[in-house]
Specification:
By secondary structure, this protein is an alpha+beta fold. The protein has helices at about 5-20, 25-30, 35-45, 55-65, 130-140, 170-175, 225-235, 280-300, 330-340, 355-360, 390-405, and strands at about 70-75, 80-85, 95-100, 115, 120, 155-160, 185, 195-200, 200-210, 215, 245-255, 260-265, 265-275, 310-320, 325, 345-350, 365-370, 375, 385. The strands form 4 sheets. Strands 1, 2, 3, 6, 7, 8, 15, 16 and 17 form a 9-stranded mixed β-sheet that branches. Strands 4-5-19-18 form a 4-stranded antiparallel β-sheet, with no helix packed on it.
Length: about 400
């Protein structure tokens, strides 16, 4: 943790401790509610929600939002499920609590959630069945009666957080309804120590090379799409990357061609570039575009006279913004203090989550775990273990209420 040098930060941490103390009865209720939270976690994980097809799960969450009487509960144009708990300061900018609906698993994946010793095992039980269930528990507890806040709290179950979803739901929400949010807290999977305040950005592209193709003997000399794609991949793999900030470039998929005895008329590959620096992402994007163009030009320069040239098309398939909520920000410090108050050591970290979007728009935002322990994410044997799970839920409540300001009786 950074050293606290200002009275304001010390006061804020003291206020978080005071709020945590005031929420003692709430934590007891959350502990009593723990079995219901686990039931919700299992129930939502059993509803298919592949990225881009989250509707069935979204409808289930909408019903639950209405069960706990969230105001204005609805599904927006991006498929996000939204509900609002008004605060005493009804015109104040809201605090946003979000958890993503989607999973990486195709719709036909068997969603057999089962008990294995102390663990619940099955696809999506942790990422993000846990986050959704705990968001519902928080919405039930911040009910305007047992817990009232000064600022409104908006609960949002987002679409398109995973992979090719490209943070679609979060982008739509924070570009429209949530553009004036005071702060945002994403709840993603298990855990009670990490405070993700740095947004790992990425740019993802698909490069497609197209040419005339032909017989490997009779048409030899026609430009070869696979050769061109391979040359581009080789050059990208040799690109010098900065050590600080840490940056990665990965060609994750490649394909093309018709048969072993044909000059391939098409080839493609997909590249993923990641960094916490927008300037670095911009520079490497420009490098990738240059390398791809040069590979196509070099192959065309070698082609036989009279043959049609190779063309190349690059499509952006992902753009996750990067940025940072400073470690000294009040929201990060409140999260760190709430972590200490449940006996854990805060781990300030970076990742790619829904919080990337508000961070990139200048809205203080973090992502946190929802208590307990989990592992084997994005596999059929994904698991969740409810080790001190209620303590993690209580931590999340303290963070949200510290941001939204506990209303006086």
């Amino acid at each position: 943790m950074p050293e606290l040098k200002t009275p304001e930060l010390k006061t804020m941490r003291t206020c978080t401790a005071s709020i945590h103390g005031a929420l003692a009865n709430s934590r007891r209720r959350l502990l009593h509610r723990d079995a219901q939270t686990l039931d919700d976690q299992i129930a939502v994980a059993r509803i298919p929600a592949p990225t881009g097809d989250e509707g069935e799960r979204g409808e289930w969450v909408l019903r639950r939002f209405r069960d706990v009487a969230l105001a204005e509960s609805h599904i927006d144009a991006a498929g996000n499920v939204i509900g609002r708990r008004p605060g005493d300061m009804r015109t104040a900018r809201p605090i946003v609590v979000c958890a993503h609906l989607d999973t990486v698993f195709p719709r036909e994946t068997p969603l057999d959630i089962r008990q294995h010793g102390p663990r619940l095992v099955g696809p999506g039980i942790n990422d993000n069945g846990r986050g959704l269930a705990v968001m519902l528990a928080l919405a039930a507890e911040i009910d305007g009666l047992h817990v009232r806040t000064g600022r409104p709290v908006e609960f949002v179950a987002t679409t398109g957080e995973e992979g090719a979803g490209d943070l679609r739901g979060a982008k739509h929400y924070f570009e429209t309804r949530g553009m004036d949010a005071a702060a945002a807290i994403a709840i993603d999977g298990a855990g009670d120590e990490r405070v993700i305040h740095q947004a790992l950005g990425s740019r993802r592209f698909r490069a497609t090379f197209s040419g005339p193709g032909g017989h490997s003997w009779a048409a030899f000399g026609a430009p070869n799409a696979v050769h061109s794609a391979a040359a581009a991949v080789t050059a990208l793999a040799a690109t010098r990357l900065p050590l600080m900030p840490r940056t990665t470039l990965t060609v994750g998929r490649i394909g093309g061609g018709l048969s072993v005895n044909s000059i391939p008329g098409n080839a493609w590959f997909e590249v993923d570039i990641r960094s916490v620096s927008a300037a670095t992402l911009d520079a490497l994007t420009a490098t990738a575009m240059r390398v791809i163009g040069e590979a196509a030009a070099a192959e065309n320069a070698r082609r036989a006279a009279g043959t049609d040239p190779l063309t190349v098309h690059v499509k952006r398939i992902g753009d996750r913004p990067c940025g940072e909520t400073p470690a000294a920000d009040a929201l990060v410090q409140a999260a760190a203090r709430a972590t200490e108050l449940i006996g854990k050591r805060p781990d300030l970290a970076l990742a790619s989550t829904d919080a990337n979007v508000p961070i990139s728009r200048g809205i203080p935002a973090i992502a946190i775990g929802a208590g307990g322990r989990g592992g084997d994410a994005h596999t059929p044997t994904e698991w969740y273990e409810n080790a001190d799970g209620p303590a993690g839920v209580g931590r999340a409540l303290t963070i949200v209420v510290a941001a939204a300001q506990l209303a006086a009786d």
